[in-house]
Specification:
By secondary structure, the protein is an all-alpha fold. It contains six helices and no strands. The protein starts with a helix and ends with a helix.
Length: 165
């Protein structure tokens, strides 16, 4: 019965010092609860800030990709316009044509097989123009369209993933 004697003495001590326990205990409990809630809120806020930064980063990358696709599309249009609107001798001498071909070559990732196909096809067109041969733009147009579609699909997938965050 030694355990009950301890409880009785503990109960007697608490009863005689209730004011002291109230003065010290209530603020102590409040401090502990406030600290725990504050830490939890801070962790949640930190996580939310990180998610917001990740979302902003993903959106910025998607925006850069969209701008890159539009720059490529513009250069593709320029190349095709030069090929279709001018006589063959004028096209090979046009700085705008050369600039567009070079920009496309610099804008694409040469480790991407589809991009490399376009650059190769452009070089074939340039060589044909230089040699005075007829140029068939059908293959080039098909490759450009397929490449732009593939990149646009990648961009849409990135945006979907970003929306899920």
């Amino acid at each position: 019965m030694g355990g009950f004697e301890f409880l009785d003495s503990w109960n007697t001590w608490i009863s005689s010092h209730i004011e002291l326990l109230t003065i010290i205990g209530a603020p102590l409990v409040t401090l502990i609860v406030t600290t725990l809630v504050s830490r939890s809120s801070e962790r949640r806020a930190t996580k939310d800030r990180q998610e917001a930064r990740d979302l902003q980063r993903a959106m910025k990358i998607a925006e850069f990709r969209r701008e890159w696709i539009e720059a490529l599309r513009t250069e593709f249009i320029e190349v095709l316009a030069h090929l279709e609107d001018k006589p063959r001798d004028d096209v090979k001498q046009t700085d705008g044509f050369k600039r567009s071909v070079n920009r496309i070559a610099l804008l694409v990732n040469h480790s991407d097989a589809d991009a490399l196909d376009i650059v190769t096809e452009l070089r074939i067109v340039v060589a044909a123009l230089r040699d005075g041969e007829a140029v068939n733009t059908g293959e080039l147009i098909a490759k450009m369209r397929a490449f732009l579609k593939k990149e646009w699909e990648k961009l849409k997938d990135e945006i979907k993933l970003t929306s899920a965050i």
